[in-house]
Amino acid sequence: MNRSLIGRGIVILAVVVGAGLLAYPPKEKINLGLDLRGGIHLVLEVQAEDALRAETEKDLDTFVRQIDEDGTGGVSATRVDDNSFRVTGVAPGRDNEVQEVVDDFLPFWSHRRDGEALLFQRRIEEESDIKEQAVRQALQTIRNRIDAFGVTEPVIQRQGLGTNRIVLQLPGVDDPERVKELIKNTAFLEFRFVDYPSQGGAAASEAEILAQYGGSLPENIEIFPQDQKAEDGSVIATGYLGLERRQIITGRDLKTARSGLGQFNEPVVRFYLSQEGGRLFGEATGANIGRRLAIVLDSRVQSAPVVQSRINDEGVIEGGFSQTEVEDLVTVLRSGALPAGIVYLEERAVGPSLGQDSIDQGLRAFTVGVALVVLTMLLVYRRSGVNAIVALAFNVVIVFGMLSYFGATLTLPGIAGIVLTIGMAVDANVLIFERIKEELRSGRTVKSAVSAGFAKAWTSIFDANLTTLIAALFLFQFGTGPIRGFAVTLSVGILASVFTAVFNSRWIFDLLLSRSDRVERLSI
């Protein structure tokens, strides 16, 4: 036996044994996808307009603060829509000052005079950037929340390039309702001063607040609901507060948060602000001692205490929370507030029993497919068919070993990809065997026919597998969830098929033919 044959045998043994060790035991090494393990599947859409609205509110507040630094006062701004705002109280003689503020603090805004007012419009390119950033930030925030919750092998990705949609697949979730609450809670935190009622609790209805303002709300006032809770935390009524439209700070100014206990040992959330957020909060609270400050979470007032003294960089959120609610809120706040709201477009739950049924059916299809392939190869190609069967067995071991090594998730379409791989692996052997038979019919010796058969079949095998691999890569790039699982197993299977059908099969033939100087017949 020559050195080349021994060397190739060692390579094959090392690859197969290594793959087997990587894949064993399969129950611990192979991650099962949503359709096999059970869990929840969600498709969300990021409301990117919320991010535009928040940025507009922030920028108009910045402009008023900067243009009014000389203390003359009288400048006010209102948002016209998501991409524009209107400023009044700036005399025409201050246009140069306005331009300086725009250049320094609002570089992505254009402005023009509209009578006595200034009309600001966001540039189109900045609008697209804010929307794209909102989706990316939402994706990262949701990923942080899911990671903090401890879901194994989640799938969190955009549904196609340039869309506002996000796909979530969470296998093995045993408390889906809590996870869904954690995901959909935008945790958009904001602090606003209360205009009405200035003292006491909340108004009984929105009509009561409207009556206070003569039947219509001023431009700088908005109405928000507040849940009235009993001692056990249950909601017994809904009240309403009239809040100033201006946000003092938002969740973007948050540095971190943690759970704690209030003055009556009730669960509360303690928050800590960034340096800039602490400065803004300190200025606002120091100038408004005695006023009520509403803590608004997801457009609902959690509490509205009276400001007793200047508050700089930390505070407390109270709202009659349970300990679990506090822990979830801390997770949401620490992972970052979503830059925009989200809506559910699709929601699907897969039970563990359905997942096990999918596994059983997939294994049954796999077993039947392998049995039929083995039987066909033995009937058509006789003892040479054993060569293909050995290569096929190696192929399966290598596929599962590579899936384990890369941490890929096996899905039901992934099982279909493995079954398809078996057919493609045998297809390569069929091409090789048919070429060998043609060479034998033309009068070549067995060794010469085997060598020529592999050489002439290689081009066809390479072309067929390359085009399939390219298709699989496109599926992986643009597909989601199970489609990507199919693409992964198919790609891994293609690489394993080329190795086993060409390298392994040739080695087995060479091993058999090396036992004799002259082989007269080949069972094929």
Number of discrete helical segments: 14
List segments where confidence is low: pLDDT < 50 over at least 5 consecutive residues.
none
State the separation between the terminal residues, measured CA to CA. 24 Å
Nearest-angstrom radius of gyration?
34 Å
> Beta-strand percentage?
15-25%
> Helix fraction?
40-55%
Number of strands: 19
| Largest sheet geometry | 6 strands, antiparallel
Shape: elongated
- Alpha-beta content class: alpha+beta
Please state the average pLDDT score. Answer: 81
What does this structure look like?
This protein has 524 residues and is α+β, with helices and mostly antiparallel strands. 53% of the residues lie in helices and 21% in strands. The protein contains 14 helices and 19 strands. It has helices at residues 3-23, 26-29, 34-37, 48-67, 95-105, 124-149, 176-184, 206-212, 275-286, 323-334, 352-406, 412-441, 446-478, 482-513, and strands at residues 31-32, 39-46, 76-81, 84-88, 109-114, 117-122, 155-158, 165-171, 189-196, 221-229, 235-244, 249-250, 254-261, 267-273, 293-297, 300-303, 314-317, 342-350, 409-410. Strand 15 (293-297) and strand 16 (300-303) form a beta hairpin. The model has no long low-confidence stretch (mean pLDDT 81).
